[in-house]
Amino acid sequence: MNAEPLLRRIVRAATAAKLEVIIIGNAGAALNGAPVTTLDFDLFVRDTAAQMPKIRAFARHLDATVLPAASPMSNLVKVENEALSLYIDIIDEPSGMRSFTSVRRRGTEVRLGDSPSFVYLASLKDIIESKKKLGRPKDLAVLPVLEMTLDEQTKLAQAEKERGSRS
Prior knowledge:
alpha/beta; Beta Polymerase, domain 2; 6 helices; 50% helix; globular
């Protein structure tokens, strides 16, 4: 399954709702070039409680439902549209990630296809740190692949830098 159409739809909905998000999790890792798959999308926002009007507008643009948090103390909001197989976790305090601003600063802006809208993508390094902090078996299982991808990207960037300095 190609997730790009769903991602484009998510970006358009976030833009329309004026909801600033950063893609994290395995979807973020895949967009960073890691050979991983996922069935859901994890989005980092500043403050889920304060952002609820925008999150509801975001869900409306996706014809999706906002599901109540698992507990009143939870910082996780789920947005789902089963007909589209669209499952989104909106998180305001991802494990291992510092502030929204610092994660955004280390990440990159991504445009999908010919869309005029962009979304922020967390760095692979931040995604790796988050998965380490979470420590769930499913996160630990994917860590070697993510770390190998980051290592290869670092080597390629270094080689490119060395080629550039010789010119």
